[in-house]
Amino acid sequence: MAPPPSPQMLGSKERSLFTQVVKNYENKQYKKGLKAADQILRRSPNHGDTIAMKALIINCQGNAEEAFALAKVALKLSMKSHVCWHVYGLLYRSAKDFEEAIKAYKSALRLEPESQQIQKDLALLQIQTRDYQGYVQSRRAILQQRTSWRQNWTALAIAQHLAGDLTNAERTLSTFEETLKGVPPKTDIEHAEAVLYKNVIIAEMGETERALEHLDAAAKNNPDRTSVMELRANHLLTLGRKEEAAKVYRMLLARNPEYRDYFEGLQSALGIEKSDVKALKNLYGDYAKQNPRGDAARRIPLDFLEGGDFREAADQYLRHMLHKGIPSTFANIKALYPDTSKRDAILELVEGYAAGEAPPVANGSAEKQPNSDKDLFKISARYFLAQHYNYHLSRDLNKAMKYIDEAIESVPESVDYHMAKARILKHYGDPKKAAEMMEEARELDLRDRYINTKAAKYHLRNNDNEAAIQIMSKFTRNEAHGGPLGDLHDMQCVWYITEDGESYLRQGKLGLALKRFVSISSIFEIWQEDQFDFHSFSLRKGPIRAYVEMVRWEDHLREHPFFSRAAISAAKIYVKLYDQPHLAHGSLINGMNGDHMDSAERKKAEKKARKEKEKQEKAEAEKKDKKAALDLNGEPKKEDKDPKGELLLQTSEPLLEAMKFITLLLEFSGRNIQAQQVGFEVFIRRKKFLLALRTLIASHALSPTDPITHEQMFRFQQSLSKLSEPLSPKAMQVINAEFNTLLPASTDLTKHNDEFLQRNHNSASHVQGYLKVRQLIDPSSKEKNQQDIIRTLALDGSSLEDAVRGLDMLEEWKAESRYKDDYLVAAHERWPEASAFKQKVD
Amino acid sequence: MDIRVLKPADIPHVQSTNITNLPENYFMKYYLYHALSWPQLSYVAVDVSRPKKTPYDPPKIVGYVLAKMEEEPVNGIQHGHITSLSVMRTHRRLGLAEKLMRQSQRAMVEMFGAQYVSLHVRMSNIAALRLYRDTLGFEVEKVESKYYADGEDAYSMKMNLNPLREQLEADEDYADEGEEVGDVGKKEKKKEDGEQGKTKRKVKLGRGLGVGELVERNESSKA
Ligand SMILES: CC(C)(COP(=O)(O)OP(=O)(O)OC[C@H]1O[C@@H](n2cnc3c(N)ncnc32)[C@H](O)[C@@H]1OP(=O)(O)O)[C@@H](O)C(=O)NCCC(=O)NCCS
């Protein structure tokens, strides 16, 4: 920034010193800058602008508090100085308080309406905070200061576009175009982009006819040929000019025959109905012939062909892939499995191959050679079958194991086969063996990071966080601050941080778990902040459509499952902390969470743990490297004062902390039923009944028979009927009216629950939901519930996860051990390999 | 598996794919820098048949090529560079990497008049070497010793894009789009002379724009 100094109070020497300070600041020569500033202040101790500059520099050195204090002093001295206000705004900006920053910039601008710099800083924050109207104003002001720059026109058009004012956005772009003398050459990329941007805007207005005319007139020579063709094909199709559309889609397919959108476009342009299998078959057949190395034209017909046609096509496709020994064949096929007849046909074909019905291959009989094509074909078929039987829609783990063992016997060095075997073991419910097997796979190809990643993930699933990070460290930059884990955070390795957190959560180490989930949230904050520089960068660089797409994507960044997955877990931990406050210290008790101790025992254990912890911390402090690590900006990295998340756990307001996640979840992932359900848990505890009810209504709309929603509905009813303080009559009225649509007041609860069971008696998770409710409305049914839950183990569709959840329910009910023992025996019988049900030997 | 151009919304999964497959990793902003500077050059392979777990599941990326143009080409000779390429192990040998590369290369020529494309590859990476040299036609330019953080040497490889340009021009004549394409390659010179009386910004764009500093730091830390 270079605000012109307001040097009225300074002598000429000081004036030039002040210029020096500004320069030093811009060049990041902070020490020099401070020195010069102090020199001025010795003469003129009340010079507000200098004090403000000093504040700015101190802020850059990482001392925000002192900087703010100084800036306030400066402002008091010079309320009328735009420099002081500008600096004030910059400080708020760096503290990410955009609202205050905008106010300060506006004050500065009132004092110095001509300042380009302040105007720009303001504009950037306005777009960052999506104050579109404000942004339009600022861009207009900036444009007026310099109308010869195309950038400024484009920027105004973007502002108008984003603000929803398409007509003026187009007009702005056109106004600039009219000033051009002649058509810019094809090589003017900025122009080429602006033309396509304008075309997109016209199309967004729904004026397809005009969009097409514009495209044909203005984009003939546009170098972005893919975009031009895609737009053209789209416009033509929208206008029903099918013959021409088909021609363009064919051109697109000639360039890229691996994009389903193009095929679909061509299909509708040719007017081929989805039911016209013959025409489709011919269409794709032609493309398959044209592209010997292509996949789409061969694979897509498997989606629409049926019966004998399907079998024939599948046979050809599978033979081709398996002969080449392509390991990803199954990954490419399994989407067909929801159709059982296709699944059966595939199985029959591949079982045939594995049994040796492969036709002799062209280059003759290499019977005895172990690496002959024919052998490869057979082995690939077995590998395919192993994956088939491991897949959840066609699972038979014993068969899967048999096939994979055969494949491994033939090719003992295959990473892929070992990897598949590890997955089978995982599905058996034995994470330890699975991790060991994935280790074997990893050791077969130490240079491949993919298999390294898998091995680390399996260690995490086995709750062995140490081994996992150790494996990861073979590919991380270990000199990074915080070692391998620090590098994974720097590189925003979301999957690892999330899995690490989930692993700690399973182990009851809530502090570390929470720490990881909060890290995910911080990464999303960085991702949101990342767009800031592009508001100016993209204008200079020119590709505007991509920029607008980025802005729109950032608007709903947090709907990404990477975020919701971590946020849901974080909120659940806070709920847990609210219900069992002792857990805040529980993670200190050597991995146990203290659930089963009485309070004297717990205190003793906590004391012991505290001592141990102090000892450990002292040791760590001594061990610690004296040198301060540098972050990516070469500045000293802030020490993490809470590496284990213990401070996070000690919050006195867990539910308010949870709200930080709930608010974002409900705003961005409202159609995710888990988000609604965890929202309910928080609201009901905060006694926000109306909000809790809203989540219930939303979950119910998403899935009327969801067992968790079913249970929550009853809990809601119970909470309302047992209020310690009555709600206001008005609130009560609203709630009753809305709740009535879910569970009318007249409902016989027991009967309603029984009916829920009747409708869903074949599903373990629904039976569990039923039992939970029965326990809730009739605590005397506990004995029966403990018995009945065992029956869920016998249900056909019961999964390993269901069974584990049942075990958790017995824990929750504090069931007598004989019930648990019976349950474990039955579960073990059904899932003999699963470690969760192996009786622990004390 | 679809092959299509990379969009900003794909980036989290592209980043995941990268850190799953390769030791050279970048933060989000570096991907954005590519996607917002040369949006035509980076491509992704998408598993379109994957069942969704939530209504918000973004497309599942199983491979990508992240590509750029050289910011400050020596002698103004435009050329592209492959920053990163990888395919998930579960989807390898389907031809995805080859297709991603070919799409990117064509865009380099059409959009930016690239004369050649360059890249670095670990000398021990046999799969990638076969792909570049045998399938695509790259040539080894030189060995860069200790190019990678762990001390491994790199082949610096190059592929001449002029044959591709000629082929595209021939196709275009055939398609009868009736346009001049011959001047694509001359673009940069013109630019520097400034056209239409407007002084064009120099191509010096990475720098001084906030993104730039980060980019360079990142590239050096990766290399
Ligand atoms: C290198 C990599 C990108 C190749 O991806 P891919 O999608 O499997 O490659 P393709 O299917 O397009 O292969 C095209 C051609 O490359 C060659 N090739 C690819 N993988 C090969 C391998 N493992 N061994 C030998 N040749 C191989 C083959 O000639 C192949 O043609 P073919 O299948 O008709 O024989 C992939 O292995 C990968 O992601 N590896 C890890 C990351 C990496 O190394 N990236 C490159 C960094 S510079």
UniProtKB/TrEMBL annotation, chain A:
Residue ranges annotated as coiled coil are none
- The entry's keywords: Repeat, TPR repeat
One Pfam assignment: TPR_2
Please list the residue ranges that the record marks as compositionally biased, kind Basic and acidic residues.
Answer: 595-645
Q: Which residue intervals make up region (Disordered)?
A: 589-646
Q: Which domain of life, per UniProt?
A: Eukaryota
**Gene3D superfamilies linked:** 1.25.40.1010, 1.25.40.1040
Q: Where are the TPR repeats?
A: 82-115
What this protein is called in its record is N-terminal acetyltransferase A, auxiliary subunit
TrEMBL record, chain B:
Name all N-acetyltransferase domain ranges.
1-162
Q: Which InterPro entries match?
A: Acyl_CoA_acyltransferase, Ard1-like, GNAT_dom
Locate the transmembrane regions by residue number. none
Q: Which Gene3D superfamilies match?
A: 3.40.630.30
Keywords tagged on the record: Acyltransferase, Transferase
PROSITE patterns listed in its UniProt record: GNAT (PS51186)
Compositionally biased region (Acidic residues): 169-182
What residue spans carry the Basic and acidic residues bias annotation? 183-198
Q: Where is this region: Disordered?
A: 169-205
User: What Pfam families does this protein map onto?
Assistant: Acetyltransf_1 (PF00583)
Similarity comment: family membership: Belongs to the acetyltransferase family. ARD1 subfamily.
PANTHER family this protein is in?
A: N-TERMINAL ACETYLTRANSFERASE, N-TERMINAL AMINO-ACID N(ALPHA)-ACETYLTRANSFERASE NATA
Q: List the protein's name.
A: N-acetyltransferase domain-containing protein
Q: Give the classification, highest ranks.
A: Eukaryota, Fungi, Dikarya, Ascomycota, Pezizomycotina
